[in-house]
Amino acid sequence: MLGSLADxxxxxxxxxxxxxxxxGFTAAQARLNTSLSRLSVVVRDLEERLGYSLCRRxxxxxxxxxxxxxxxxxxxxxxxxxxxxxxxxxxxxxxxREQLQIGSVDSLIxxxxxxxxxxxxxxxxxxxxxxxxxxxxxxxxxxQAVLDERLHLAIGAFHHQLSGLHYQHLxxxxxxxxxxxxxxxxxxxxxxxxxxEICAADYVSRGxxxxxxxxxxxxxxxxxxAYAMEAIATLIFSGTYLGYLPSHYATAxxxxxxxxxxxxxxxxxxxxxxxxxxxxxxxxxxxxxxLECLALAGRQLGEAHLQPLxxxxx
Length: 314
What we know:
The chain is 41% helix and 21% strand. By secondary structure, it is of the alpha/beta class. The chain has three domains: 7-91, Winged helix-like DNA-binding domain superfamily/Winged helix DNA-binding domain (Arc Repressor Mutant, subunit A, Orthogonal Bundle), CATH 1.10.10.10; 99-171 and 272-305, D-Maltodextrin-Binding Protein, domain 2 (3-Layer(aba) Sandwich), CATH 3.40.190.10; 173-271, 3-Layer(aba) Sandwich (D-Maltodextrin-Binding Protein, domain 2), CATH 3.40.190. It starts with 6 loop residues before the first helix and ends in a 14-residue tail after the last helix. It comes from Pseudomonas protegens. InterPro entries: LysR_HTH_N (IPR000847), LysR_subst-bd (IPR005119), WH-like_DNA-bd_sf (IPR036388), WH_DNA-bd_sf (IPR036390).
């Protein structure tokens, strides 16, 4: 049974909530970038601290006990109260400028119609007193940070939709499978390549994507994991791995003859980017204004995929 609530208790509660949001230990493993054994230890320690069971795992899948469900709901209220306390405490200090915590995936700067930079400029002109803080994270980390209220909103390509988050479609990004000059497949023409040969090559997977989320259901014999586009590109440039990269990100290297796309007409795909915010959060002037700025930036960039976001912030 809990006596005083320590930092370690809060950390264990956040891990437990992440497991529940993911729908189980296995799905939470990649999102939290940790092992199944470590997750099991954290939940076991939390159960021992509380004195009751929180969940069951077995052939029927992951299931919360009644106490586990109630604890999960209580933890959501606790984390919301902590964030409200933090905001209130900050307002009592000498710094009165409102902060806006924005998250994004990396390597969007070379995408011509990505609206983030233009939207930040609009926000600066409309609300110069607002201080935007920009955080670059993996998609799974962005979702968790918005749920935990560490971020007000985030932009990324999310491969599932979590309860508790609002997903607003923004734009699409083309992805291609690349190899570097020096890889055995680089000099081969697309006409002579087969899927069997491609899948036999070593592959760089995105560590935050589950196996079943691989493009075109490709199954590579050997793979390593990376968690950022630059890390994937670095491994591709070793000349020993294939990997997917955003086409705009790889364009300069392709033009220099350092990278080539493999079977682009067959293996390319498009990632759908969304802006996510937490459902039920109290509307703030800075957040509502920035969503309006994001919509305006999308219209100015002339991208038909961008949808108005202003209504969400009202």
